[in-house]
Structure formats: C-alpha cells, structure tokens
Design brief:
With 189 residues, the protein is an alpha+beta fold. 25% of the residues lie in helices and 32% in strands. The chain has one domain: Immunoglobulin-like (Sandwich). Strand 3 and strand 4 form a beta hairpin. Helix 2 packs across helix 3. It starts with a helix and ends with a helix.
C-alpha cells in the first residue's frame, strides 16, 4: 500500500471512529422556557455499539421537572429509518430486564421533544424505578413492534452503564424546579 493509500485508510478509520463517538451518550440539562420545565435527558445512548449497523437504536432516559416540583419520566427511543416500518398501536416497546418484562405504549411529552437529524424519536412514559431496573440489569433486551416486523436489540454493558451515570448525576438529590420565567409584566413590577 502506498503512503497516499495509507493516509486515505487512516482518514476513513478516523471518520468511522468520529461517527461512532458521535453516537455515544451524553446528557443535557436545560430549562425549556416556553413550557417552564427543567429537562434532564440522556442523548444518543446507542444500545448495541456495533459497527456498521443497518438500524441504529438509542434508548435514553428523560426527566421533566415542573415549576410546582412534580416530575414526569420518559424513555426516549431513537432510531434511524427502518425500511417499511410502521409502529404497532398499543404497547409497542417491550423491555426484558433479567427476564422481567416491562411494556410501554407511546405517548407525548408535555414539553417539546426535539429529534436529532436522521432519527425518529418515540416517547414512552415510565417511572424512575424502570431507570434503576435498567441500570442494575445484567441482561437488558428491547423489542420495538411494528405492524409487520419487529426490531430487537440487546443493550451493551456500556449502554446500561450510561443509565447508571445518568442516575448518579441527576437522582442524588430531589429534582429542582425551574425558575419562574421572566416576563415583561414581571420585569415592570
């Protein structure tokens, strides 16, 4: 292989590594000033971490804290386009955590959920206990049911570890409500 060919191969390897790292988990913590909600969310937690997957599936935790201190909890499932896939009605997400079955029906979040480019985002209401169950699970599998096909994935240890990191970061203390939004009326008074 020539020097030029080696440089091309190295560049392609670097690009593939960057793409994989871009699909690794991080968290966001922000206040949605339109809905006055504090959002603490995992992002891009790729469940299998396999190279060259046809369909990338990410499973993320999300907590929305309202001004009155109440909180809603969601699992966000992101996926790249699945050919000829239509989500089944009813409980279309099933998690098997060490053999225990958890089923979820899609729902809407009261606050805005913004999808990443190239991904479809599905929202499933849950409890914080499900986050803990996933984080402590040894074998976590998911099934997304469509009308004529299914997508099944097993969560990688690193993906399960991201749930632990998320819980340690955001669930050590009671949730903090967002500050009241500044309005023109409030500023004049």
């Amino acid at each position: 292989m020539t020097t030029r060919g080696m440089k091309k191969a190295l560049l392609l390897t670097a690009a593939a590594t960057a793409t994989l790292l871009a699909a690794c988990q991080n968290t966001t913590h922000r206040v949605d000033r339109f809905d006055n909600v504090r959002i603490q969310q995992m992002e891009a937690n790729n469940v299998s971490r396999d190279w060259f997957e046809k369909v990338v599936v990410c499973l993320n935790a999300r907590r929305e804290v309202r001004a009155d201190g109440t909180a809603d909890h969601f699992l966000l499932l992101e996926h790249t386009p699945i050919p000829e896939f239509t989500l089944a009605s009813g409980e279309s997400l099933t998690l098997l955590v060490d053999g225990a079955r958890h089923t979820f029906a899609p729902t809407n979040s009261p606050a805005a959920v913004v999808s990443r480019p190239g991904f479809t985002t599905l929202t499933f209401r849950t409890t914080p206990q499900v986050f803990v169950t996933i984080a402590n699970g040894r074998k976590v599998e998911l099934r997304l049911k469509g009308t004529s096909s299914v997508v099944e994935k097993r969560l990688a240890r690193a993906s399960i570890g991201e749930f632990k990191s998320y819980l340690l970061k955001y669930f050590q203390a009671p949730p903090t409500p967002p500050d009241a939004p500044a309005t023109k009326t409030a500023q004049r008074g």
